[in-house]
Amino acid sequence: MIDLDAAAFEALVIEELDLLPDDMVDGLDNVVFVVEDRPEDGSLDLLGLYDGLALTERERYGMGDLPDRIIVYREPHLHAVESVDELRDEIHTTLVHEIAHFYGIDDERLHELGWA
């Protein structure tokens, strides 16, 4: 486990987000990225969460709708790794995984693709 304060962790998340391919992030519509310490249940098992309605499930969506959220949990990430390099890799994987949920890709398919 490594120790990193909230601001330094958020900076890593932003760096990893900036490294993602344009075609992956350009299609994100009305989505915000949020860093939180832990999930509501306090567990260390969940690294990220897509909180919203997948693009494939949207019938009517537009102005006035609250943004979907992609949440990256700091403490579970720090608990799961032993180095900053491992942390960067885990953050990258979490971002790809949660963005995939926005596009309607489920956990089973993500597992097949190696992103779960």
Key descriptive features of the protein:
116 residues; alpha+beta; three-stranded mixed sheet; globular
Overview of this protein structure:
By secondary structure, the chain is of the alpha+beta class. The chain is 44% helix and 14% strand. The protein has five helices and three strands. It has helices spanning 6-19, 22-25, 74-80, 84-102, 107-113, and strands spanning 31-36, 48-51, 68-73. Strands 1-3-2 form a three-stranded mixed sheet. The longest helix has 19 residues, at 84-102. The two termini are 21 Å apart. The model has no long low-confidence stretch (mean pLDDT 91).
Q: Concise description?
A:
The protein has 116 residues and is of the alpha+beta class.
